[in-house]
Amino acid sequence: MKVIHYCQHVLGMGHFFRSLEIAKALDKEQVIFVAGGTKPNQELPANVKYYQLSGLCMDENFGGLMPTTADRKLEDVKKERADSIFRLFEKEKPDVFLIELFPFGRKAFRFELIPVLDAIKEGRFGDVKVICSLRDILVERDDGGKHEARCVKYLNKYFDLLLIHSDPKIASLDETFKALNQITIPYTYTGFAARQPKSDIRDKLRKKYGIADNEKLLIASAGGGKVGGELMNSVFDAFSAMQLEKTRMFMFTGPFFDQNKFDKIYNSAADYENIIVEKFATDFTDLLTAADAMISMAGYNTCMDILTSGTPSAVLPFNQNHEQRMRAEKIAKHIPLKILESKDLIASGMEDVINTLLIRNRSTQNHGIDLDGASKSAQAIRKSG
After folding, report:
1. Confidence band (pLDDT; 50, 70, 90) for 37?
2. Which Pfam families match (predicted)?
3. Residue 172, Cα to own-chain centre: how many angstroms?
4. pLDDT at residue number 379
């Protein structure tokens, strides 16, 4: 089976890594991973061929698209991308077109998706099944139902299957998509698509990084890094002032973190032997199992990493929409999880957070949340094709 897997991340990396887990689970299939954001420095599995579109991302005010290459015109990039995707389908003639998020999001990318979907509908590429890959919680809309009506229209016209990467006892789609009962195509909950750490990796990684048995390791992460600067500054200032003995901190600002802000933190860290600042860790999920605590933004993948690792954690939800806070609050009903507020970002507040996390034990409780979403998604995709 040949799968063209479309994933466009415009802000963080959550969409990319969730999609990559599903591509990994399709290990017996040929996956052409079509992406239009900045590619993270991440090794891809052998079954995945990466197809890079000319880059587009959200502008700094989240008001519209802009090219990731500064000297390019938006309309030129859009035309190039649309032509490129269409030619890819003409050449590859896949069995499955797996689209991440659209039509529930990525409305701005209709210019390149609708022409392909129309051509699939007309049979121009052969018999291609179209599947939507959707996360658990959608961003709220205040448009009188126009967005939901458009989603239903596109789903029922173009798509064959909807995969919802959630455990419905934690988050069901109808909580944030009221028109669910108007969808006429089949849909299924797959469980959360979680990255799984390697087994028995904790001791190996602690040895690799020279962390003694009596030392504590705190990880601070801003996810993709386009947001989270305030959190990184707060954690760095608090941790460096505390001068904790036998405690280290690894800080990962994210690959999209502002370079000037990164340089400031990185240079400041040079004065402390127990602080390491990097943009990204390819072994982040494994490394989290070696940690004793984590402070991070509250994206989908981070929350899943907390569930798979059991690491004592505190998360700061992105405040421009309710998605991250809603997910964090739901998960906090099943595991000990500190949800950070603005008061926690002041020096004394963050010191309290760090101290509390470092004395907590790793969670070993069976939370009962379905984290097998990648495998179940792959099974559903194979069955559809």
Report:
1. confident
2. Glyco_tran_28_C
3. 19
4. 97
Of the candidate ranges 57-71, 115-129, 154-168, 217-231, the one whose mean pLDDT is the lowest: 57-71
State how far the Cα of 378 lies from the Cα of 356, in Å rounded to an integer: 40
- Quick one: pLDDT at residue 38? 72
171: nearest Cα among 132, 135, 223, 133: 135
Look at residues 307, 301, 317 and name the one whose alpha carbon lies nearest to residue 365. Answer: 307
Strands 247-252 and 275-278: parallel
What CA–CA distance (Å, rounded) separates 90 from 84?
A: 10
Q: What is the pLDDT of residues 350-371, one digit of tens each?
A: 999 999 999 998 876 689 999 9
From 331, 277, 275, select the one nearest 302 (Cα to Cα).
331
3-state secondary structure the chain: CEEEEEECCCCCCHHHHHHHHHHHHCCCCEEEEEECCCCCCCCCCCCEEEEECCCEEECCCCCCEEECCCCCCHHHHHHHHHHHHHHHHHHHCCCEEEEECCCCCCHHHHHHHHHHHHHHHCCECECCEEEEEECCCCCCCCCCCHHHHHHHHHHHHHCCEEEECCCCCCCCHHHCCCCHHHCCCCEEECCCECCCCCCCCHHHHHHHCCCCCCCEEEEEECCCCCCCHHHHHHHHHHHHHHCCCCEEEEEECCCCCCHHHHHHHHHHHCCCCCEEEECCCCCHHHHHHHCCEEEEECCHHHHHHHHHHCCCEEEECCCCCCHHHHHHHHHCCCCCCEECCHHHHCHHHHHHHHHHHHCCCCCCCCCCCCCEHHHHHHHHHHHHC
* pLDDT tens digit sequence for 297-337: 998 999 999 999 999 999 999 887 789 999 999 999 999 99
CA distance 316 to 308: 19
With 90 as the cut, is the pLDDT of residue 340 above it?
yes
Residue 12 has pLDDT above 70, yes or no: no
Q: Residue 151 carries which side chain, given as an amino acid letter?
A: C
Q: How confident is the model at residue 62 (pLDDT cuts 50, 70, 90)?
A: low
Q: Are strands 56-58 and 65-67 parallel, antiparallel or unpaired?
A: antiparallel
